[in-house]
Design goal:
Blueprint: E1 2-8, H1 22-27, E2 31-35, H2 63-66, E3 73-75, H3 85-98, E4 102-104, E5 106-107, H4 110-113, E6 117-121, E7 124-132, E8 148-149, E9 154-159, E10 173-178, H5 180-196, E11 199-205, H6 217-228, E12 233-237, E13 245-248, E14 251-254, E15 259-262, E16 272-281, E17 284-295, E18 301-303, H7 306-320, E19 325-330, E20 333-338
Parallel strand pairs: 1-2, 1-15, 2-3, 3-4, 7-11, 11-12, 12-14
Antiparallel strand pairs: 1-16, 5-8, 6-7, 9-10, 13-14, 16-17, 17-18, 17-20, 19-20
């Protein structure tokens, strides 16, 4: 399987976005990405978003870049999926269905949004779940009678720095915890997916963007919790930068794969990104690699070699080191492994 981060395509020739990477995506048994925003010509821009005017909308011909085996399944749970309201997300579902691209994380109601996409390959069944913890309350979550996305609410509190009296004005320390009801629902979803599949992937739109590389404590807690509940792999996105990769138990957590193909400018976006590959044997992770990718000036991902590849892998290694992940470089890619335990 291959996994990439955020995909937002808005151009006259959509397939041109993926020219350099198309063969890698097509050659995989399963290819996955996060569709950042609706593919639609319906609906009205959602009012009241905190960043006024930031609405993502891709034209209907965008699906020509994603179809014909380029992507097998896409996540729809993110903070732009509902930018054109219920009509926009439901047309996106229709467009993907017509193109035979499976999807997860959004639907006509809460049950549909939380329903896993199931793909069978090599005699095994793979279940894909998708959630967002970054969203506009009220308008984005699917309910029993309204289209939307699958969400996991997170509560934020702040505690003083232990040196606040010694150093007045010290920044407060954020403390983030999952909503108890959503946490229980999430665990039940994972367990149910595990009952019907041999391998479970959880896609998660989470974390903090705006070039802020710190991973919030709720991400570590929830990422490990879903692995403990039966998931094999967590694929994170939203920060628009690469973040660390952690082995936990028999599973793997990628906190952010960054942007991958993104037709939008921002000083907070990195050009470094990656294609994560995961070989699965008998329902277990057998080998994990990172293919280094840089996003060019036309917003297109390009697989790179030499020093350019080395810079991307340096970033992966630096961000993954706190999670005790070894990055072993071989022939221009990186093989990821849990670091060996120290000798006793």
């Amino acid at each position: 399987m291959v996994f990439v981060g955020d995909v937002y395509i808005k151009r006259d020739d959509p397939p041109s976005m993926l020219t350099s990477v198309r063969s890698v995506l097509r050659d995989a048994d399963i290819s996955f990405g996060n569709l950042e925003g609706p593919i639609t010509d319906r609906g009205e821009p959602l009012l009241g978003k905190p960043i006024a005017g930031v609405h993502f909308q891709s034209p209907l011909n965008t699906v020509t870049a994603l179809s014909d085996g380029v992507f097998d399944v896409m996540s729809l749970a993110n903070n732009h999926s509902m930018d054109l309201g219920p009509e926009g997300i439901m047309q996106t579902v229709e467009v993907l269905d017509e193109a035979n691209i499976q999807h997860c994380g959004a639907g006509a109601d809460d049950a549909a949004a939380r329903m896993p996409a199931i793909i069978s390959r090599g005699g095994s069944r793979f279940a894909f779940l998708s959630y967002s913890s970054v969203f506009q309350p009220g308008a984005f979550p699917a309910t029993a009678d309204r289209p939307g996305i699958a969400t996991v609410r997170v509560h934020t509190a702040y505690q003083p720095s232990p040196r606040v009296f010694e150093q007045p004005g010290s920044p407060a320390i954020p403390v983030t915890t999952a909503d108890e009801v959503d946490h229980e629902t999430l665990m039940a979803d994972v367990r149910q997916a595990r009952d019907v599949a041999d391998f479970v992937i959880v896609s998660w739109h989470w974390g903090i963007s705006q070039s802020y590389r710190k991973i919030a404590d709720y991400q570590v807690d929830l990422g490990r919790a879903v692995i403990d509940a039966g998931a094999n792999l967590v694929i994170g996105h939203h920060p628009h930068v690469l973040q660390g990769i952690e082995f936990h138990g028999d599973g793997l957590i990628c906190y952010s794969l960054g942007n991958f193909a993104f037709d939008r400018e921002s000083p907070h976006f990195d050009s470094e990104t990656a294609i994560l590959t995961c070989r699965v044997v008998n329902g277990e992770i057998d080998r994990v690699t990172v293919i280094p990718v840089l996003i060019n000036d036309s917003h297109e991902p390009e697989i790179v070699e030499g020093d350019r590849a080395g810079a991307v892998l340096d970033l992966v290694e630096r961000e993954s080191a706190p999670f005790n992940t070894s990055v072993i470089r071989k022939n221009g890619i990186a093989v990821l492994q849990p670091a060996a335990a120290p000798a006793t």
